[in-house]
Amino acid sequence: YNIVGNVFAEINFLRNFSFRTSIGLSNYNTMYQTFSGAQAENAEANSKVNSLSVNASMSRTLTFSNTLNYQKDFGKHKLDFLIGTETVQASSRSLSASSDDYFTVNKNYLLLQNGAERYPGSSGRGKTALLSYFGRFDYNYNDRYLFGTTIRRDGSSYFGPNKRFGTFPSFSVGWRVSQEDFMRGISWVNDLKIRVSYGVLGSQNNVAVLNQFSTYGSSIYYAAYDMSGTSNSVDVGMYKNRIGNSATGWEEDVVRNLGIDIVLLNNSLDFQIDLYKKSINGLLLTEPLPSVIGALVSSPTVNIGDIQNTGIDLSAKYRFNIGNFRNSINMNFTHYKNEIIDLPDPGYFGGSSRNEEGYPTGMFYGYKITGIFNSQEEIDDAPTQDAAQPGRFRYEDYNKDGIITSDDRQFLASPHPDFIYGIILNTEYKGFDLSAQFYGVQGNTIYNQTRMSTDFFQSNITANKSRKLLNAWTPENTNTTVPKIENVQSFSTTTSFNSYALEDGSYFRLKTVTLGYSFNTKSPFMQRLMLSNLRIYTQASNLFTITKYSGLDPDIASGSPESFGIDVATYPTNEPKVTFGVTLTY
Fold first, then answer.
1. Which end of the chain is more exposed for a tag (fewer CB within 10 A), N or C?
2. What contacts 24+ positions apart, CB below 8 Å, involve 141-145?
3. What pLDDT does residue 184 have?
4. Structural contact between residues 325 and 428, judged by C-beta atoms closer than 8 angstroms
């Protein structure tokens, strides 16, 4: 169950002043247990007969805010000034335990103590806090010249004592050109405004609660030692499971924006254009660690570099009538360029998703496949390549030195799209309304990781295989892009990241079609039921998707920066569905 509530008090005094205080609470509690019976499939890879896990957790968030506001109008001038503070405290507790090998699956006997093999339980508790001071000032002269500025100072318990607080200012200026005297004779321009803004935003995303601390764990599996000199007993010790970094601080997103809003032709045509530049200083990412440290240690999140996005957003809306039909067309277009500006030495990090100065984030990096070896003669004439065999991939000798090494890896493709666009069509006739929403992404690349399981047999995954294997390479079938079927791994197939599973992720989708009818509020039917609004509608979603992508859904979640553009069998959200609804207001 989840309880959410808020209580506030507000007082107005001295004509132009108002003070508001509020307390908000969110309290969440859950308890659940999971029983896993004996597996019929993949039983050889599972040693457990059955298992039971019991979990309980509680979390609470308390928000306390206070603001003082001053508003004053005199003549053509309008002033709005606000200062305030806010604190957000979150606490949590958890408890979990599990047991294996139950003699029965009767739910009345599924208790932790009835399992033949019982594991030590675990518990956890946590607490975080955020403290903010902020102020805002807005000025408006005759609805023609607009100015606003905001400043925040935020402190977070996610960061160490020396980097806990950050200061983030912003300002904006607007000029409503259409209100000027020289625009009065231009009747086809109904409104024209120019906007300029600059702001610094602080982010603590991608930072673990314990990021500033080095922590240790105890486990009989990972830290057991024979301290007595005999093999009959062991003592459980400690091992390092997290490397802390108290120097990690706020990520700063610096956003510059120039915008134009224009309304034309008797308010029938709207345009909005925004040019922006977003610089991220002190990007929060997990620090790469050398492999000698081991797999049990979590790496800290650090301020690892600076990146930059520059782009343009365009939107337009056209309204027109045909007889009794009221119609509108909405269109939007987005294009951006992403670039890494600065990284610490050696100027890059990452493996198959590489981040390097001068390039976009998350670039796919590896060996480019130029074909498949068809004979030993082709192998002998080609640059030296490890594990080269007929039926295996042939890689490009990128540096032209006659041997395929790690130096021949190259940037293969980008997960970032060239542009994103959308179209919304609307029409209304009397009480009926019909709308269709289209959405498209163009020019991005997806790494379809699922194909590494479905197109090869050398993994231990026993899932179904792809029909592409029916066209796998054989000495008699050489006109193919699918390598030969084998149950071993090699550098020339799957142990090195290559371009085999990279696909065009562009798509165009009809997201929704909605048909509705709104009853006339003055009709006797509505009056009799005492309704002020009654609308019935049906909506169909994901009616079609045009794409060359072979996966289940090209609209994959972006995920973390390290997995951007990688499809790891993401559950699809493009299933067609139909919804019926009624909206009414008494």
1. N
2. 141/76, 141/77, 141/78, 142/76, 142/179, 143/176, 143/179, 144/175, 144/176, 144/179, 144/180, 145/174, 145/175, 145/176
3. 85
4. yes
Q: How many other CB atoms sit within 10 Å of the CB of residue 248?
A: 24
Six token digits for residue 303: 């301020």
Tokens of 66: 């206070």
Please compute Rg for the chain using Cα positions: 31
Give the tens place of pLDDT for each residue, 41-84: 665 656 668 899 999 999 999 999 999 999 999 999 999 999 99
- The residues, any chain, with a CB within 8 Å of residue 77's CB and separated by 6 or more, are 139, 140, 141
Answer yes or no: are the C-beta atoms of 498 and 398 closer than 8 Å: no
CB 87 within 8 A of CB 157: no
Q: Hey, which residues does 404 pair with through a beta bridge? A: none
Secondary structure (DSSP) of 73-117: EETTEEEEEEEEEEEEEEEEEEEEEEEE--S---GGG--GGGSSE
Predicted model pTM: 0.81
- Residues in CB range of 230: below 8 A, 6 or more apart: none
Tell me which amino acid residue 500 is: Y
Amino acid residing at 39: Q
One-letter amino acid at 81 equals F
Long-range contacts of 143-151 (CB under 8 A, 24+ apart): 143/176, 143/179, 144/175, 144/176, 144/179, 144/180, 145/174, 145/175, 145/176, 146/172, 146/173, 146/174, 146/175, 146/176, 147/171, 147/172, 147/173, 147/174, 148/172, 150/199
DSSP state of 283: -
d(CA 155, CA 441): 38
